[in-house]
Amino acid sequence: MTFGRGALLAGVEEPAGRDSRTLRTGLTMMLRGCRDRPLAAAIAVGCALINAVCMVLAAKAVGWATDHVVLPSFRDDHFPVGAAVVAAGFVLGVSLLRIVTIIGRGVATGVVQFGGEAADRRAVVAQYLRLGVSWHRRRPSGQLVSGVVSDVETAWDPMQHFPFAAGMAVMLLLVLGDIALVDGWLALVAAVLIPLVFAANLLYQKVLAPRARDAQRHRAVLSGLAHEAVAGRQVVRTLGITDREIARFAAAADESRAANRRMGSAGAVFDPAIELMPPLAALVILAVGVARVQDGLLGVGALVEVVYLLITTAIPLNVIARFLGVLPLGVAGHTRVRRILEATERPAAGQHALPDRAGGVGLELTGAWFGYGERADAAAVRDLTLAVRPGAVVAVVGATGAGKSTLLALLAHLLETDRGSVAVGGVDTRLLAPEAVRRRTALDTQNAFLFADTVRANVTLGAPGPLRHALEVAGADGFVAALPDGADTELSDTAQLSGGQRQRIALARAVFRRPGLLLLDDATSALDPLVERAVIEALRAEYAGDERHATVVLVGHRAATIALADTVVFLAGGRIVAQGTHAELLEAEPGYRALLGAYDTAEVLG
Predict the structure, then answer these.
(1) Which residue of 41, 65, 238, 412 has the lowest C-beta tally within 10 Å?
(2) What per-residue confidence (pLDDT) applies to 570?
C-alpha cells in the first residue's frame, strides 16, 4: 500500500553504521556538543563522575556497616549504637550527594542536548532559506520537515546518555579496582562476569534498535495519514471516499501495532534476562566468596561489599549499552543534518549593492538560459534577451509552460542562469549581495502564502509604514475593515478568507515594501473581473502614473491586466517571440491574438 505525506514525515531511513568509524564519529559528535557548551557539559560530566564515586562509596559503607554493626550485634548480643550512627550518617550523606548529582547531571545534560538541538534547528532553517529554488524542488516538503525535527532530534538523542555513560564507565573501573583490592580471585571472577553482562546488554540493543526504528517509521506514517484525514476532510467527504480513507488508516494502524508488538516481544525476552544476570553473577561471586570466608582469606563485610558492587553494576552496564545502542542512529541523523548544512547549491552572490535612490531599477537579460533538468533541450527558458528601463511596466504573456514564472524567478534571483546573464540596476545579479536584491525586490505569486498571524503582521512583516495605503492599492481595505478585529484579526480557521482575499493581502504586502522592482506572477488570478478591474486601476495609478517609482513586471492573461503595461513580452516555448505594445502585438502576432482570444472566451464561458 502506498501512503501519502505520512511516509515523507518518517524521513530518510538510513542503516546504522556498522564499521569502527561509527563509534569514533559518535564520540566526536558528543565531544563537539560538549565543547559548544563547556560549562553545562563540565557540570554534567562532573556530577556523573561524583555519582559514580558515591555508588562505590555506598558499597563500602554497607561493607563497613556489616563488619562494625551487623556482625557485632550477633556476636556480642549488643547493638553498637555509635557505629550504627556513623554508618547511617555516611550512607545518608552519600545518598543525599547522589540525589544532588543526579539532579545536576540531568539539568546540565538537558542544557547541552536541547541547546544543541535548538542551534541545529536554527542553522537548518537558515540554510533552507539560503539554498536555491532548484535544491528545494528536488526534495519533498515532508523530508525537509523531517530534517528540522526528526533528524536533529535523533542526532542529539545520544547526548542524554553520554555524561551518564561516561560516569558509569569510570564506575566500572572503580568497581573492578575496588574488588581487586578486596580479593584478587573475586576480581578475576568479576572480570569475566561483567563483560558477559555487558555483552548481553549490547545484544539487546542490537536486536531492539532496528525494531524501534521500524516502529518509529510506522508511527510517523500513521501521524501523516491522520494529518491528511483532518486537513483533507472536506475533500474526503465530498468525493465519498470516507470508507477508503478509514481502511487506509486502519491498515497503517495495524502495521504500527505489529511493529510495536515486535519491539515489545524483544523487550519481553531480554528485559527479564538482563535483570537476572547481575543477581546470578552475584550468586557466583557469593559462592566463591563464601569459600574464601570459610578459609579465613576474606572478611564477611568485604564479601558483602563485593556482592553489593556487582549487583549495582547492572545500572552502569545498562546505561553504557543504551548509549552505544542509540549512537549509530545519532550518527545517521547527524550525517543527514550535515548534508543539509554543507549543501552549496544556492544562487551566486557578491558584495555589490543597488543604487540607494528611490525609483525603479533597470533590467537587462542577455542570452539567458535556464533548465530544471540536465538536458539542454529541456530548458524552461532559452536565449532571453530583454532590456527594461527604470520605472517601466512590462506584461509577460504566454501559454501555460511558456516560461513566465521562470523568467520572474530569474529576475528575483531565486534562480541563476545556466548561460547568459541577468542584470538588475546595471549589476549582474550574481555580483549583488543577497540583501541588496531582497531589499529592493518584491515577488507576489498566485499562490498567496499567509502567515498564521494578523493581517497587519502579514502585510508589514513588522516594519513601520503606511498600512492603509497598501491595503487600498491592493483593493483589500474594504473586506479587511469588515473583519472582526480589522487589520488586527488573526488569520486562522476562525477568520476564513477566500482565494481572492488572500491574494489581495499578499499583493498589499508586496506594495507595502515600496520596492524598486515589483514582480507580479498572476497575482490577481483568483479575483473576479470586476474586482480585478478595480485593483488594476489602483495599480495603474500607483505604478503607471507620472512618478514611476517602481519597475513592474507582471504576468497576466486578462486584457485589463495587460493594458496596465507599457510593453508586452510574448513568450512561447521558453523564448521571447515578440514584444511591443498590446495593440501592436494584437495586430502583428497571430499567436498572441489567438491566446488573448482564448482567454477572453474562457472568461465569457465562465
Answers:
(1) 238
(2) 92
Position 564: which residue type?
A: L
What span, in angstroms and rounded, lies between the C-alpha atoms of 348 and 469?
35
* Alpha carbon distance 422, 439 (integer Å): 17
**Residue 249 to residues 2, 223, 240, 490: CA-CA distances in angstroms?**
11, 10, 16, 33
Beta-strand ranges (E) seen in 441-559 are 441-445, 517-521, 551-555
C-alpha cell recorded at residue 567:
510593453
Q: What pLDDT, on a 0 to 100 scale, did the predictor assign at position 9?
A: 38
The per-residue pLDDT for 599 is: 61
Are 56 and 171 spatial neighbours (Cβ–Cβ below 8 Å)?
Answer: yes
Q: What is the pTM of this model?
A: 0.67
> In the chain, which stretches have pLDDT less than 50?
1-19, 376, 494, 601-606
Amino acid at 321: A
Whether the Cβ atoms of residue 224 and residue 8 lie closer than 8 Å to each other: yes
Q: How many residues does the chain have?
A: 606
Give the pairing of strands 575-580 and 427-428: unpaired
Strand order in the sheet with 363-370: 381-388, 363-370, 419-424, 427-428
- List helix spans (H) across 10-80: 20-36, 38-65, 71-76
**Residue owning grid cell 564479601:** 303
- With cell 507576489, the residue in question is 444
Residue whose C-alpha cell reads 525476552 in the numeric block: 269
Q: What whole-number distance in Å separates Cα of residue 192 and Cα of residue 277?
A: 13
pLDDT at 20: 53
The whole-angstrom separation of Cα 8 and Cα 387 is 43
CB atoms within 10 A of CB 90: 17
Closest CA to 313 of 271, 273, 282: 282
CB 324 within 8 A of CB 205: yes
Sign of CA dihedral 266, 270, 272, 275: negative
User: What residues are paired with 398 via a beta bridge?
Assistant: 571
Phi, psi of 2 (to 5 degrees): -100, 130
Q: Which residues contact 535 (CB under 8 A, 6 or more apart)?
A: 474, 475, 504, 507, 524, 527
